Amino acid sequence: MKKRRLAIIGVGMVGIPVLMEILIGMSAHFQITIYSFIPIDKFKVPLGIRIRCMPRVPVHQRLKYFLVGIWFSIDHARSSFEVIHAQSAFPGGVMARFLGKLYRIPWMVTLIGGEVEAMPEVPFGDLLNHRLKNITYRVCSEAKVLTVMSEFQASSVRNNLNLKRKIEILPYAPPVKRLQEKEIVFPVKLLHVAYHHPVKNHEMLLLVLSRLVKQVACNLTIVGANYGQAFLKRMEELKLQDHIKMCGPKPYDEMERFYHESHILIHTSWYEGLPTVAFEAMANGSVVCGTHVGIMADLSRTHCLTVLPGRDEDLSEIILGLIYNSERYKQLRKNAHGWAKDHDLNNYIDQMTHLYDEIICAKM
Description:
By secondary structure, this protein is α/β, with parallel strands linked by helices. The chain has 2 domains: about 5-175 and about 345-364, Glycogen Phosphorylase B (Rossmann fold, 3-Layer(aba) Sandwich), CATH 3.40.50; about 190-340, 3-Layer(aba) Sandwich (Rossmann fold). It has 13 helices and 13 strands. Helix 1 crosses helix 13, helix 3 packs across helix 4 (about 130-140) and helix 6 packs across helix 11. The radius of gyration is 21 Å and the shape is globular.
């Protein structure tokens, strides 16, 4: 059976490990061409997926649109695309909207992170920019299908864009393996996985740890990039240097070990659409405790434990309660892993393939 032709438009994409797994799975069903507004290392792309990306020299934004449009037009003339999928509203959604209308191809968009948020105090979110807000509204309202990572993110779409339409909840899904036995032992192994950015609220992370170390033997492993002198100074001010191990960024294939070795993942962001690390932790048997954002908000109480962003005292209290309640810990692990298994990589590919088929057939 001839594979259908799929165009994916966005920024990078190949650098996201979970998305790479998805692309590999999708390539069994579709001929995929990726159009990227930034350079991509083509040697990291699976065989069978075609890449059209910017050169490794500065390129004006308007020229980027022109190049993507020319590449797409040439490829489409040779063999017609049947669906266009934009990763994020800008710039991918803008280009998908234009090309979809020009060539009468059904198009859809997936929102990934802060496209529908505005947090001036951080600062974070595309909606802080009035022009981007208008672009995002137009793209999200006109797309044939709109997908987001969580019900929490879908609520942001409805509330912040005042948009009333059907929204598909389809989070990027990592592979899920068998749940191994694990119990809380001392010192408790805590894990945090994130690059350093104000939206990740690392002040809250450090305050939570400073409360925990006064009441229980524990240590925190941090995996991520860009932790500078300001973070290290704050860590020393709170006398936490003996309780924190900084590991720097790690490749995706090494992360499974960190999740398996940890008891609890702490994630303290002001905002998240998913986040992927929470999904990965659940899939690998680490209980998630953090702020009420993304899928952590969707699954709070039954699959993970959350508090409102910034409430460090509340988060430290629920983590302490969990540490001394082995039955609760085991149940959360079981529930979270079961959810991850039900929403695993194969499920994502099946659902996305179904959405593609639906919008292709609707055109006929």
